[in-house]
Fold this sequence. Notes:
This protein is α+β, with helices and mostly antiparallel strands.
Amino acid sequence: MEKIAIILAIIATALSVVLALIRLYDFYKEKNNIKIKLRANALIVDGSEISKENTYIMISIINVGEEAVTIISAGLLSPELEKRSSYLFKVKTKKLHTSDSIDYLDLEKNVKKEFDISKRKYVAYALDNAGRLYFSHNFIKRLIRLKRFG
């Protein structure tokens, strides 16, 4: 009788783990999945001239999820908490369907006026109409770049 109880307990545990994994998979499949890429020192080629004086910071937002997402804001975060904590790009509200992308540009010298930090410390973000924030770096890299430990 004891062996049957142990076997049933093992089967119940295995079934619970499988059902939990299925629910977790469904959760990640249904959520909006936005990828944000941040590029500094981007050059815009206009005709045949390339001006290295006017380099841009570019935020690329790509919808890799299955649901449409409307982006209402995008910008950069700064590690300098005493000063302004974010730089907002001029953004037009854009609805991104699956595989759609949009690029936001601003001159690096405009960003440098707001906060004078290394390009390697920039963290880009985007805000959708539901109030969800998406970042260009994962949580650990954001902590390191922004130095917001406390």
